[in-house]
Write a structure and sequence with these properties.
The complex is a heterodimer of chains A (about 425) and B (about 375). With about 425 residues, chain A is of the alpha+beta class. Helix content of chain A is about 40%, strand content about 20%. Classes of the chains: A alpha+beta (about 425), B alpha+beta (about 375).
Chain lengths: ~425, ~375
């Protein structure tokens, strides 16, 4: 069982958006930098440099909050396209070293080095683990010298260990947790460091007197303990090195690019309006834009969705979700029609709308066989033309004619 | 009821009834054949409500009457009898059927004949006499692409259209599609009693398939009759009544391209053999046949992630157009080639997302459309 070695690497680009901005404007180096929406609107912080993190500014907090915490920081608006371009180049560098690379997000990559140690072995390496740790450090150095982007990497027997280790390796470090060292590594960390333990679970654990992962592991290890059911199962699995087949199943939320499990999980996008909206035209346009985006993401993932979900939040924070299951589809026309039907059914109050979201789930592998278009619309041809323009010039290069005002509000993927 | 009948005469209607009787029906009567003896013959009827088959055979009627018995059981019994024997069939008051032939005899438990539903539509409607071979050939060219997906009922049958084409001629058209491919066959046929009106109906695939079975007889003609919600096909001794599918057939004209950017004519045999060889690697969902058309040749390729890959080239010296790459389900191409009785077929394609048109110069009026698979 313990034959599984530490071969999963989580490589995370340090303050990625800030690092890219520093390539464009080197005067930002060493300065407190915040990248995100412009101050004064409802946007959020996309990335904060280490200099500004000391003030409590983190990615994900609102701009208003950031400005309150760090009024003297340099605020840089996000730019289109450039980040994805750099992310692609990083991936290309990593792929020189391992064929199994799964981008988990724009600045985070999982790499499987299983079976690679003999390929890279050098006489000075004490064992396979040392070889892999050295190779990962080389990758980080290549990303730094070729692109100017700092990265940190964690290596472990599972996704979760690698992810936590990459966090502990920051900034610009490599940390390997060898087989059997997992428990000792996790023990001193606060429970919140464990992926999946958010503020709510943390509060529950604190109430139970559990603050560190050591305390948590001890609590769940007790015979007959039924406490923290699903959480305990998740932690136990990480402590026990898992097989290659299992690690791919570990984090369904990060499955966007995973060709082995494309139909797991869901795809959703939501948008908060800058100011709450009454105008139905604006609402419809936003629904179209969201449907357009999720359809495109479904096609990139090579799946067709059976279930379409609409999320609707009124200005008073009442939130509704409505779903409908239809024939598997990945085209804007079908998804949009369903979204409009769901909206017509869900929208019953005259209160202004704060947020809209569209989600796809219950995926089927995309059907390779094309359908005859009896309605005269060659769907596959249109989608393919749109997708090829986008793959070359980016998502914004071609949009639905009816989608106006497209950069409004903040965007939240996944 | 008491009749004496030759085994050979008895087996034919029973064989024809096998496709209609519903073996899984919840009511027993639908698994039965209904027999009526009178006026010098026996009349057999079997139905599943959508398709109703009626056949007459001559028999020596010793005592008129009716019987209702499991169609499969009766068929199995009669089939096992030696050829050329006379069969004596008797039905008593308790609906038990006795079958005697030579020194063998059987008893089959029947049902009360009155329980058989009154399904045969009486009366006369608009009629059209057609050549059997013609109709049979058209059915063969369309039946294979009928959809079996019950969620799209309009596609579960063959669309039959009749339009005037001349003083004593009618244009007969049959169209079928399963959403991935489409077949359209048109023939101008002699129809002396045609009144010039247009007809359009969808014949359920089960009825159309039964029609082929009925055509196996020796008669030359077939009469098509439109009777209320049914369409009736009859030859001298058999009658098939098929309920029309009352749905809107899709606008098939829209998906038939006038022509493709690239058009290539080649030997059907060469194409079929090459596809068969290359697709020996096909399994389940791994059935993507890649076809690369370039000046002078067509390359076929199939890649199976687990097994390996297969390649073959067909020379097409006369093709000088541009390069096109298209993916296909090989079975769809084979099906079309299988129904065309010609040596040369023409493929017309535009790009990897557009429908591929297949037809044959030597067989005007037969048009096939196959949608590609994503490469």
């Amino acid at each position: 069982m313990d034959s599984r070695r530490a071969r999963i690497c989580c490589l995370d680009l340090d303050t990625f958006f800030v690092s890219v901005e520093r390539i464009f404007d080197p005067s930002l180096i060493g300065q407190p930098v915040v990248v995100g929406a412009m101050p004064g609107n409802r946007g959020v912080v996309t990335a904060a440099s280490y200099e500004v993190r000391a003030f409590g500014v983190r990615s994900g907090i609102s701009m208003t909050e950031a400005v309150r915490l760090a009024p003297n920081a340099i605020y840089v608006p996000t730019r289109d396209g450039a980040y994805a371009q750099y992310s692609k180049q990083v991936r290309a560098i990593i792929e020189r070293y391992s064929p199994v690379v799964r981008p988990a997000s724009i600045d985070e990559f999982y790499i499987d080095f299983e079976g690679c140690e003999r390929l890279y072995r050098q006489p000075t390496d004490t064992d396979g683990d040392a070889t892999i740790a050295r190779v990962v450090t080389e990758i980080r150095a290549a990303i730094q010298t070729e692109l100017g982007l700092p990265a940190s990497a964690g290596i472990g027997t599972s996704h979760t260990i690698a992810k936590i280790a990459s966090g502990r390796a920051k900034p610009a470090g490599t940390l390997m947790i060898r087989t059997g060292e997992e428990r000792a590594f996790l023990a001193p960390l606060s429970v919140r460091k464990y992926p999946g333990i958010g503020p709510v679970a943390e509060k529950r654990l604190h109430e139970a007197g559990i603050h560190t992962l050591d305390q948590l592991m001890t609590a769940i290890d007790q015979p007959g303990s039924k406490r923290f059911g699903p959480l305990a199962a998740c932690v136990r699995r990480v402590l026990r090195p898992v097989g290659a087949a299992e690690w791919r199943e570990e984090r369904p939320a990060f499955r966007e690019f995973d060709p082995d499990g494309r139909t797991v999980g869901s795809i959703s996008n939501e948008r908060t309006f800058m100011a709450d909206v009454h105008d139905q035209q604006q609402v419809h346009n936003q629904l179209r834009a969201l449907a357009e985006r999720v359809s495109w993401r479904a096609r990139r993932r090579d799946v067709c969705a059976r279930t379409v979900t609409l999320k609707l939040r009124y200005a008073d924070f009442q939130t509704l979700t409505r779903s409908r299951t239809i024939a598997p589809t990945d085209t804007e026309a079908d998804i949009m029609r369903t979204v409009f039907e769901l909206y017509a059914q869900a929208h019953t109050r005259s209160v202004a709308i704060r947020l809209l979201g569209v989600g796809l789930s219950n995926f089927a592998q995309a059907e390779r066989q094309l359908q005859l278009s009896f309605d005269g619309r060659p769907r596959a041809k249109i989608s393919s033309a749109v997708d090829s323009v986008r793959s070359q010039f980016g998502y914004q290069a071609i949009r639905l004619g009816a989608v106006a005002d497209r950069r409004e509000g903040r965007r939240g993927d996944d | 009821m008491k009749v004496r009948i030759d085994k050979g005469a008895l087996i034919t209607p029973l064989y024809r009834a096998q496709g209609v009787i519903d073996r899984k029906a919840s009511t027993n009567v639908l698994a039965c054949v209904h027999m009526v003896a009178g006026d010098g013959g026996l009349t057999f009827t079997a139905t599943d409500y959508d398709v109703t088959m009626t056949a007459d055979v001559s028999a020596e009627v010793l005592e008129p009457g009716a019987a209702l018995v499991n169609g499969r059981a009766l068929f199995d019994v009669v089939r096992a009898l030696p050829d050329g024997v006379d069969v004596l069939m008797t039905c008593d008051d308790s609906h038990r059927i006795r079958i005697e032939a030579g020194r063998a005899y059987y008893h089959l438990n029947g049902l009360a004949p009155e329980e058989f539903p009154d399904v045969v539509e009486e009366g006369t409607g608009k009629r059209l006499h057609l050549d059997k071979e013609e109709v049979s050939g058209m059915l063969r060219r369309t039946l294979f692409s009928v959809s079996a997906d019950e969620s799209r009922p309009a596609l579960n049958g063959v669309l039959l259209e009749i339009e005037p084409a001349g003083p004593t001629q009618a244009l007969l058209r049959m169209v079928s599609t399963d959403g991935h491919r489409l077949s359209r066959v048109e023939r101008t046929v002699e129809a002396t009693d045609y009144d010039g009106s247009s007809y359009r109906c969808i014949v359920h695939r089960r009825g159309a398939a039964e029609l082929q079975r009925i055509f196996e007889g020796s008669d030359l003609g077939v009469v098509i009759e439109f009777l209320g919600r049914n369409v009736v096909f009859s030859s001298d001794h058999a009658r098939l009544q098929v309920r029309q599918i009352e749905e809107a057939f899709p606008e098939y004209q829209r998906v038939i391209p006038d022509r493709g950017d690239a058009s290539v004519s080649l030997s059907k045999t060469a194409l079929v053999n090459a596809i068969r060889r290359v697709s020996s690697l096909a399994s389940g969902k791994h059935n993507l046949l890649r076809m690369d058309l370039e000046p002078g040749r067509i390359s076929l390729e199939m890649v199976h992630a687990d097994f390996g890959d297969a390649h073959e080239e067909i020379e097409v010296p006369e093709y000088e157009g541009h390069n096109v790459s298209v993916g296909f389900n090989p079975r769809y191409l084979m099906d079309v080639c299988g129904v065309l009785d010609v040596e040369t077929v023409t493929l017309e394609m535009s790009d990897q997302f557009s429908p591929c048109l297949i037809n044959a110069e030597d067989e005007q009026g037969s048009t096939f459309v196959v949608m590609p698979m994503r490469l």
